[in-house]
């Protein structure tokens, strides 16, 4: 056990066996993600020296040891700015009208890859914040769930023009919530419904605000989630199975539903899942209208 001089927090270093397991896990995840995105993993990037959490981090007397979860957060912050610059540069260059067709397509691929990478980093940063601080940060303001859901549904319709996404608003009353975080929740749930639901059926989004709580739900038809899997859905690094070839399977690290749960918890709410052949699969969120 050691104490950080700057923060005066006490840490208990992981046993070496757990450090190796963590190193192996993140190495496998990184290699899989790079391969999916068409990149060639560098032996230097994926080397044990680059990724393992070693006792060398402990320093003299163990006083300068940095927890692995904090290292992930630091690396995520460092990578976000250059990736944002790459995405912005590609987007600005794409606005030129004199670009040859093949160059335009390569730039579009570059922007998509950068945006995917930024989404992964965003998930990792949320994960590290929730584990390091014990909860995700939120900025609660009086907001209209109808407007928040409407923005997300419009974006998902534009990104998936071949799918039907229905929005039903039963009450437009305002609720105390973090708009950006709730958008993140709905975007994740609708994206999952599109990925795992039957393509020939609509995704149904509903907003209902009562006297004391707001209900947000996302429903889809399709394969039923087995009862034994529901209990682990909201654990980190868990991905649901999807039909189809590897190129159509879910991308990412499997943090989406974990982050959804953490955001809902930060609002003092709950999230539940109901999945059967008759009713389909519904994710239901209950949020208090106002935090006491």
Overview of this protein structure:
With 292 residues, the chain is an alpha+beta fold. Helix content is 46%, strand content 16%. The protein is built from 8 helices and 9 strands. The chain has helices spanning 16-36, 48-51, 68-94, 101-133, 145-159, 179-196, 227-230, 256-266; strands spanning 2-3, 10-11, 141-143, 165-169, 175-177, 203-209, 213-220, 270-276, 280-288. The strands form 3 sheets. A 5-stranded mixed sheet has the order 4-6-7-9-8, covered by helices on one side. A two-stranded antiparallel sheet has the order 1-2. Helix 5 (145-159) packs across helix 6. The longest helix has 33 residues, at 101-133. It starts with a strand and ends with a strand.
Tell me briefly what this model is.
This protein is an alpha+beta fold and 292 residues long. Helices cover 46% and strands 16% of the residues. It contains eight helices and nine strands.
Keywords:
five-stranded mixed sheet, 292 residues, alpha+beta, 8 helices
Q: What's the structural blueprint in terms of helices and strands?
A:
Blueprint: E1 2-3, E2 10-11, H1 16-36, H2 48-51, H3 68-94, H4 101-133, E3 141-143, H5 145-159, E4 165-169, E5 175-177, H6 179-196, E6 203-209, E7 213-220, H7 227-230, H8 256-266, E8 270-276, E9 280-288
Parallel strand pairs: 4-6
Antiparallel strand pairs: 1-2, 3-5, 6-7, 7-9, 8-9
Helix pairs in contact: 3-4, 4-8, 5-6, 6-8
